[in-house]
Amino acid sequence: PRPVLGMQVRLKRGRQGNQVRGSIQNVKKRANMNRVSSHPSYAQRISFYHVPPVGDITLEEFESFAIDRLKVLKEIDNLKVRGAKMDAMENRMRVVLAKYLPLPSISTMGDVEASIRKDVISHFTLRLAYCKPNDRQWFLSQERMLLKFRLTIYSDSLETFITENDLAFPAITADEFEEYEDDLNQFSLSLGYLENAVARDYYKVPFEDALELVMTRKAVIKKGYAFVHRKALISLVLRRYSKHLSKQLARAYKELPVFSQDFRIASLIHSLPTQYLGRAYEGSDRQAGAISLADIDSHAGQSFPLCMELLHTSLRRDHHLKHGGRMQYGLFVKGLGLTLDQSLEFWREEFTKGGYNFEKDYSYNIRHNYGMVGKRTSYTPYACEKIINMIPGHGEYHGCAYKTLDKSDLQHQLTRKGLGISEISAVMKLTEENHYQEACRQVFEYMHIGAPEFSQTHPNKYFDQSVKYYEMRAAYEKGGGATNQDDSNLPPTTVVKLNQ
């Protein structure tokens, strides 16, 4: 194997199955590291990921580490798109990080090295997966925020992090402090720092290294240098990290063909950027026949996401859908719990009305989706990522409605669903920024007042959340304000708003 990004990667078959093995080449030893491991890869709890990982790992672990990190990054992206406040984001990320990427403190003597190992391996795996030019910016942006959360959540980490990563931020001299003391005192007061400025609180960096702080007036500019308060150092750290990671992504892209030589690694790293991470929504997830064919029309108007509602409406109107629409909608209703017999009855009824020979031309496709013919694979409903990437042609209605409909048609559909002017404006803004899933989630929120928040990643998830909402509301109203379950188990906002 040849060196790649400072390491060698090869696969071997061991007693525990396929394994990825990496070995470090020319590792630079750092004397100032507070080591938690004998190997530099895992020596730092939080790092710039200078040193690639080492050791043996099964392919299953290789994939699961990457997926857990991807869940964290996608949660960060969702929080940013929703415009969550920083306090709310930090609280949410404490929960998400504890679940998927925990970093126990050294003092707790938890399995620190195992956690760091997972963190490092998952970072380098996603670095390969997102090194293509079109994918880099998303990954870089989320990784930057991840580092910011960690340095904020682990309050004792910033100074240690700066030391361990050799990030030199020179303090201002006594002469400079004396010269600019009045300006620095005024500046400290303007930022809400009640104590008078002292020399050790300020660092001197080139103006171009503190552009974000300059733009937000959080630095004092003198003779081409920015004087930065120690409480704003995190901004400088994040800027350094962004520059470092940007270079490493470009380097990884050059080495990508080496990893592509092994299809087991290649298939994983190429699929990760479009990987759906949620529930598969097999038809078997629901009780067979739980959804009545007679109820589909009412469900469509009340609980279907817009993409599926439009497909349902088109099918009822034209008694036909082209192949893309049949696949998207057919798998969706399968995921609702329709049995094979119910699906055949549903599609036969519509296509017969349109004068089509259903048994000859279309029934095989339905049976194929259920794994009864062909290669006997039971197919799962499409997730939002796949639907968004679909491009419908003339006379086709599949794909994501928030992406495919033109502005006037989408506004008409939102008006028809009862959204107000300001609500429509908010949704349209999200679609213009290509946040189609968040636009769909926002519509759900407007139509289900008081429902618990969730990340919209799958049409069947939208349906499930909507059905739960209306079932809970019906139970609440039937009980005259009480449900069969303890109110303490319900979201407080739901109880209050439904009562209103």
If you had to describe this structure to a student in words, what would you say it looks like?
The chain has 500 residues and is of the alpha+beta class. 55% of the residues lie in helices and 7% in strands. The protein has helices at 59-81, 86-100, 112-129, 133-153, 157-164, 174-179, 181-190, 211-215, 233-259, 263-271, 296-303, 306-318, 323-336, 340-353, 358-361, 363-369, 384-388, 401-404, 407-416, 421-432, 436-447, 459-478, 492-499, and strands at 3-4, 7-14, 17-24, 55-58, 202-206, 220-222, 225-229.
What topology does this entry show?
Elements: E1 3-4, E2 7-14, E3 17-24, E4 55-58, H1 59-81, H2 86-100, H3 112-129, H4 133-153, H5 157-164, H6 174-179, H7 181-190, E5 202-206, H8 211-215, E6 220-222, E7 225-229, H9 233-259, H10 263-271, H11 296-303, H12 306-318, H13 323-336, H14 340-353, H15 358-361, H16 363-369, H17 384-388, H18 401-404, H19 407-416, H20 421-432, H21 436-447, H22 459-478, H23 492-499
Antiparallel strand pairs: 1-2, 2-3, 3-4, 5-7, 6-7
